[in-house]
Design goal:
Length: about 575
């Protein structure tokens, strides 16, 4: 077996082995691949055993691959409907990832979404606010249903583009199936279920760009498609500026293509579309970079190479690109640095990897992995090209297409199902925060705050209280004491709630909600001294509010002198 294929086999075996032993590693160092500890055994081990059998039994894999039909476009239609059905069958129920709490049906309900998402681009607001509102008004569906239908369309388009990429880079059926698996699967499938955020749409543009770059490198075609994909990404999300090096690479590939396949004038015109997009949204991007992003997403610097941070980056990559270890095949190809495909994909991959390493989201990578789906797409496109070439060159190794396909698809579908299991997903997020490794205090505080709200909404008062307690331990905040007080009140424990509200007003005497909560607990407990204390704050902050008058009336009726 040639060295590249030995590497493919070894990388697949290591990936499978890591997924099996990751749950045995103390803590959550391997949170990108240790899903076995979070899934029911029946949802993990049979699929893992199928992958192990495909690797250990080449004759069986060869038989399966030989019986697969020769790839045709109707197969892409079937696969697109299958992936769309999967995304519909597993709706988002955990709301842990990124901004899913806001960016589902609730986002379209906002009258002025720009007040909550000042960084949103106009195309983002049009697609994920105006469009679902119009669909709901016209067809009588919910905003969330409108978003999920849009996600179905994205999943179908995603599958066709992945198929197009596979057909571009592969010459044999085995190479095509393997390349399709590498390109199509990843954790991003869990975002095609109504996550109304422009990065989801932009990621489709990135896959289109990857397919266009490979076609341009090989055949001198689709320069215009590359330009349009980058332009669409730019008007959708500001992070698309990281695609500009790929644009320059596309222009260089077009200019140096053989004369007989050189792009036509219309393609050059379409290739200039990013200039128009930058003219339209560039000033808005710059304002966002210098205001919102400078405060929220400051560059990470050399701390990106600290062990915990570097490991989080690796886990994010493995979550998004299940076959990421196969990217090492790049360096085993003879003259890889001279290949036109290498130029194209390096211009796409390297800026995305830089973003992953040096820009950190507010909520930590374990939650905000959705921000970095583009790096997974870029690496997966690279792997698709490399694996297709390796299998095409050695027909006897066609059997490896089956383990490649399984190694990509199985963890992706498992992750999709996991995000639909609210209890397990919330427990997993809490476990990752507990560690080890120990995460920064602000990440732990924000994470447990969010989990507390999720558990409180589910009615699990005990878990919500534990989450709020851990958030307060990480970074005491008066608002967290209010949240914990509200949770205790809902559980009927007014004595505990009184202590939390009292601590909140001690930390921030201007917090109106804390004074209200304190008065409510005093009323429920018949606690006159606490009501007197609460009224001091209420009279100062809400002198003419009906709530304050009701509290005064209660105090008058319950003072010993009054009785």
């Amino acid at each position: 077996m040639p060295a590249p294929l030995r590497y493919v086999f070894a990388a697949l075996a290591v990936t499978a082995l890591l997924r099996a032993v990751a749950p045995l590693v103390p803590g959550r160092w391997l949170w990108g691949i240790d899903l076995a500890r979070d899934l029911p055994a029946a949802a993990f081990w049979p699929a893992w055993l199928a992958l192990a059998a495909a690797l250990a039994w080449p004759a069986l894999s060869a038989t399966v691959i030989a019986r697969l039909p020769a790839p045709r476009w109707p197969h892409a239609l079937v696969l697109s409907l299958l992936l769309a059905a999967l995304t519909w069958a597993f709706p988002e129920r955990a709301f842990v990832t990124g901004d899913t709490t806001l960016r589902h049906g609730a986002f379209a309900q906002l009258e002025h979404p720009e007040q909550f998402t000042p960084q949103a681009m106009p195309a983002d607001l049009a697609l994920h606010h105006a469009l679902p509102r119009a669909a709901a008004a016209r067809y009588g569906i919910t905003y969330d249903t409108a978003g999920r239908i849009w996600g179905l369309g994205l999943a179908i388009a995603w599958t066709f583009v992945a198929w197009m990429l596979a057909r571009t880079v592969a010459r044999t059926p085995a190479g095509t199936w393997a390349a399709f698996g590498a390109a199509a699967f990843g954790a991003q499938l869990a975002l095609f279920n109504g996550y109304a955020k422009a990065t989801v749409d932009m990621n489709l543009c990135v896959l289109v760009l990857a397919a266009a770059l490979l076609a341009l490198a090989r055949h001198g075609r689709r320069l215009g498609v590359a330009g349009l994909a980058i332009a669409a990404a730019l008007v959708l999300h500001r992070s698309a500026v990281a695609l500009l090096p790929a644009w320059f690479a596309a222009l260089a590939l077009g200019a140096t293509a053989p004369r007989e396949s050189r792009p036509r004038p219309l393609e050059w015109l379409l290739a200039a579309a990013p200039l128009a997009a930058l003219a339209a949204v560039g000033p808005r991007m710059w304002r966002t970079f210098t205001t919102f992003d400078s405060a929220k997403h400051a560059p990470h610097g050399l701390s990106a190479f600290a062990p915990v941070e570097l490991n989080d980056s690796l886990q994010t990559l493995l979550l998004l690109a299940p076959l990421a270890l196969l990217a090492g095949l790049w360096f085993l190809r003879a003259g890889w640095w001279r290949r036109r495909e290498s130029l194209a994909l390096a211009a796409l991959v390297l800026p995305q990897v830089a973003l992953l390493l040096f820009v950190r989201p507010q909520q930590g990578l374990y939650r905000d992995w959705d921000v970095y789906v583009s790096v997974g797409i870029a690496v997966s496109a690279l792997v698709a090209w490399l694996v297709a070439e390796a299998l095409d060159e050695t027909p006897s190794a066609a059997w490896l297409a089956l383990p490649v396909l399984l190694a990509a698809a199985v963890p992706s579908v498992q992750w999709l199902a996991h995000q639909s299991d609210r209890a397990r997903a919330l427990a997993r997020a809490s476990d990752v925060l507990i560690g080890p490794p120990t995460r920064p205090a602000d990440v732990r505080a924000a994470g447990y705050d969010h989990l507390g709200m999720m558990w409180m909404a589910s009615g699990d008062r005990a878990e919500a209280d534990r989450a709020y307690a851990r958030s307060i331990e990480a970074a005491p905040n008066p608002r967290l004491f209010v949240q914990r007080g509200m949770n205790a009140s809902l559980a009927g424990d007014y004595a505990a709630a009184r202590e939390h509200y009292a601590r909140a007003v001690e930390l921030n005497p201007e917090l109106t909600l804390a004074w209200r909560g304190l008065a409510t607990c005093a009323s429920a407990l018949g606690d006159v001294p606490t009501m007197e204390h609460a009224l001091v704050g209420l009279r100062r902050l809400l002198p003419n509010d009906p709530f304050t008058r009701d509290a005064e009336a209660w105090l008058q009726a319950n003072r010993p002198a009054a009785r």
